[in-house]
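Run folding on both entries below.
>entry_1
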Amino acid sequence: MTTGTSQSATAQTGTAQTGTSTLDDEELEALRDTVREVCADAGGTTAVRELDESGRGYDERLWRVLAQEVGLAGLGLPEPYGVGGLAELAVVCEELGRVLAPVPFLGSTVLAGQVLARCGPLATTALKDVAEGRVHALAVADADGVWRPEGLAVTAHPAVNGWRLTGMSPFVLDGTGATGFVVAATGPDGVDVFTVAAGAPGVTAQPTPCLDLSRSQAMLLLDDTPAIRVTVGGTGAAAVTEGLDLALVALSAEQLGGAQACLDMTVAYTCERTQFGRAIGSFQAVKHRCADMLLQVETARSAVLRGVAVEDDPPALAEAAAVAQSWCCEAYTWVAEETVQLHGGIGFTWEHDAHLYFRRAVADAALLGGSAHHREQLARLLGW
């Protein structure tokens, strides 16, 4: 497949302002079609099965095509490093989630990139690297896997030639194949954001076993590691919080794509599989379960669209992000479970794709905090 038909994501979006979509519906669908075609050429879920578990944790060839030839690595980043906004990010995440594409788009462009985008001019070098496809991983989680400034286990202290970091950060998505890390650490002024090179002294990205076979996680260990501070005066917490609000909507879009794929394969199977001389999809009980799956998927779609619609209103985005993630992580998991069940015996086999989607659904549900955590966040935002 050649990407000349759509040029690149950045070419399509022209001179968009940071965080604002400039594509109309037709152009967004063209972007969707391009990503879908590239992923199809990569073999769909075949790319997951062929992923080398001893390597970088992602499909380097597919990422090179998507990041550089299609231009997705800089999507949603500030000019001049990237263009576009949440609408574009959501479309791409949905399509990547549909085929479980083993690429670091969510970890590097969305998570690390969106936090860096809110760190100011000191993050220029790191943003340029992310936009060029060099993978950066976000390390901000506490021991429970959620973002709480008071729960950070990494500390920062000034040194003769800059800053040094010491501590541990778990649940670092795409950490095993990253060339750099975006780390939140507690320093003399409060929480700030720092960048760390993967090859710096004292850095260990320890692979963490993960249920999801399509991407890697790591525990980041830092021992008096040199770092570059990209926020000042304890402003890092705000940068991380704002970046994660947008990332939660993008993650919800990824979950929507996976749930839609599960629904599609289940409907197709129930129309083909026969029992007692008729397709099992003609039985009323199966119809009801498929209808319930559709309801979950379409409600998830509404939650994602709401998040995209309020992108430029930070308080509304925070609320919409909490709603989207609290719903979508449960919807995806439930739909994936139904997919396994409605496929009968074949749904439990290694050879079928159903378990790959179930693995992604469960892993995604815990990635930035489970549904209970996001409901607590929503209650806090609403003053309950």
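>entry_2
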Amino acid sequence: MTQEFDFDAVVVGAGAVGLACGYALSQRGLTVAVLEREDHIGQGVSSRNSEVIHGGLYYPTGSLKARLSVQGRRLLYAFLDKHHVDYKKCGKLVVATRQDEIPRLEAIYDQALANGVEGMEHLTGAQARALEPGLNAHAALLSPESGVFASHDYMLALRGEIEAAGGAVVVRTSFEGATPLAGGGFTVRIGGAETASLACRLLVTAPGLSAQAVAATIEGFPADQIPAAHYGKGVYFRLAAKAPFQRLIYPPPIPGALGTHYRNDLGGQAVFGPDLEYVPAPDYSVDPARAAAFADYIRRFWPDLPADRLVPDYAGVRPKIHGPDAPQPDFQLRGADSHGLPGLMALFGIESPGLTSSLAIGDEVARRLTA
């Protein structure tokens, strides 16, 4: 007897990456249901980030992060244009605030060229200051393809595309687990106002911070294929004064992250962050006392930061799969070759540049599952 499916594909998690996976699958003519336990889409990792469109400068040659960030950026700008989502391609300066940081800029430049990043330029300190007066820079790199955008409007557009293709984005509906079917596909158990189950041919898990917990509820998923979960908290401070720079300003990266940077958001306000602190569980509090450390860091590239003008803003938590003393790994898109369950793609460690890469991640997931 042929198995009947309620949907061709079910996606767990309605953040940017989950919605992008649902969009990519729906564009291939599949019926898709995206499940979200929160009251609205994009309430997890996707709601607490910098809204930066990354150029794709930093990531190792041949990695998924390198390939998907560049592809994703190109796809993202086209999608934003098509759907009239607000963005600002303001460009980014990566600055050497000391002479001894210049070799690090050279390495970033070489990596960016290897990754196919367009338009990269070397700038002297004087050239960087001509673009952004007040900047402390011994040298800089200009990435003209970087920008900022309205990420929630982007997610709303993805939802609209999924629904226009006959799919469903279902909020207030938790994923409780899945069982593989003998003939292929899965029975998915869902909770919410009422518990229920549905059958699907393909299953994608993209729930951000809950990736490990979700994988553990899928019958037959090997425990040794679920990476350890680590939580990388980052806080942001807003400047209670006129924004000093038009472009994104980034010092060289720190271990495990890109470091505290500056952006002029779409509302014209200056925001600094995130820093990085490993925490035992998600925590979104912002300690005003951290402003002093922020100020010290910011004055490395903006010496004229006025005293006592940093205001606590918000915090995000990154779904890391490495600890503070381990090298930062690649995105993990784990298919049947990893866990032995045909039709399942489980995503782990989708932190930065996951938002920029989201459309390319979706295409990659859909390609692997439908090949």
